[in-house]
Amino acid sequence: MSESTTDKVRPSRRQALLGDRPGSYAIAKHVRMSASKVRRVVDNVRGMGVNDALVTLQFAPQAASEPVYKVIASAVANAGLTHDLDAADLYVSQAYVDEGSTMRRIRARAKGSASRILKRSSHITVVVEPRSNQIVVEPRSNQIVVEPRSNQIVVEPRPESTANVKSSKRQES
Prior knowledge:
The protein is an alpha+beta fold. The chain has a domain at 13-131: CATH 3.90.470.10. 31% of the residues lie in helices and 29% in strands. α3 (50-58) runs antiparallel to α4 (65-82). It is globular.
């Protein structure tokens, strides 16, 4: 017998975004701005401390910085009210932008024709967590690593894959 759709329970949004970790989130839906323009701003503040992110957004020249500022401020307020977390300890752990609905409008053109105007919108999601929960990701062995003290770029060699070794043995024989 197959399971019916009523047996499957979708996890709550909080469970999907944070799991059991402390923190909070905020979502702004139907922001009348293109998702690609908002992503430029969101990429700048992802991983920053909350206070640094708010100051950066306050003085950013992009128009999308205002709604992103409001979403981060809302997530910080939610974290303060629901989990009693201090804003100084929080950082932006996740921030992403999804496309929203698109309003289609018509603009009259020459010879009785028309062209379509797409008025795009986006959904902004920001998750803030305390710094104590921050996961430190080690760089991979084939990535470029910048030494902080010497400011020199060190390229670590890639490990030889087994595919290259096999192909070189075939060529020799």
